[in-house]
From TrEMBL:
Belongs to the azoreductase type 1 family. This is FMN dependent NADH:quinone oxidoreductase. Also exhibits azoreductase activity. Catalyzes the reductive cleavage of the azo bond in aromatic azo compounds to the corresponding amines. Keywords: Flavoprotein, FMN, NAD, Oxidoreductase. InterPro entries: Flavodoxin_fold (IPR003680), Flavoprotein-like_sf (IPR029039), FMN-dep_NADH:Q_OxRdtase_AzoR1 (IPR050104), NADH:quinone_OxRdtase_FMN_depd (IPR023048). The keyword Translocase does not apply. It catalyses: 2 a quinone + NADH + H(+) = 2 a 1,4-benzosemiquinone + NAD(+); N,N-dimethyl-1,4-phenylenediamine + anthranilate + 2 NAD(+) = 2-(4-dimethylaminophenyl)diazenylbenzoate + 2 NADH + 2 H(+).
Amino acid sequence: MNILHLDSGLFLEQSVSRKLSQQIVSRITAEQDQVVYRDLVTDAIPHLDAETLLAAQQPLTQTLLDELFAADVIVIGAPMYNFTIPTQLKAWLDRVLKAGVTFNYTEKGPVGLLQGKKVYIASGRGGIYSTGDAAAMDHQESYLRQALGFIGITDVQVIRAEGVNMGDEPRQQALQAADEAIAALA
């Protein structure tokens, strides 16, 4: 199995999403598996500009696409910043959501070209956004599901630790719940 592991948490040592994504990779990886790791913070992808978007061939974009196409499983460490994903993860998505490559426009609408891949999202959140009134502010997990679904990846499982900035007890409960969800992965 080929695993693509992406991290986008800004706080390298303290990042909850990085901790969770590493736990997920450790849990699902067998000895013979290949893991490609890409740290989107320490090795940032330049933001998309018109020249890059219109270029017929762009080596970095091709490398990112090759990694994505080769992966059977993608693990994404995705913290919530200001109700959405980090800009570094958005830069990666801007490179791999590519018409004619990862999706096609058809008379019946867009069709994703990446079928049969599994995604685990390691989601870290300071507050609680999965339920209650704050759920309307979740543009992190919902955006990732929509973007991945657009390119044909619909098998998405979120492992979430939320409320980690609401005090020591809620933080420990959130991390414990995430640890239990990871332990239950097949």
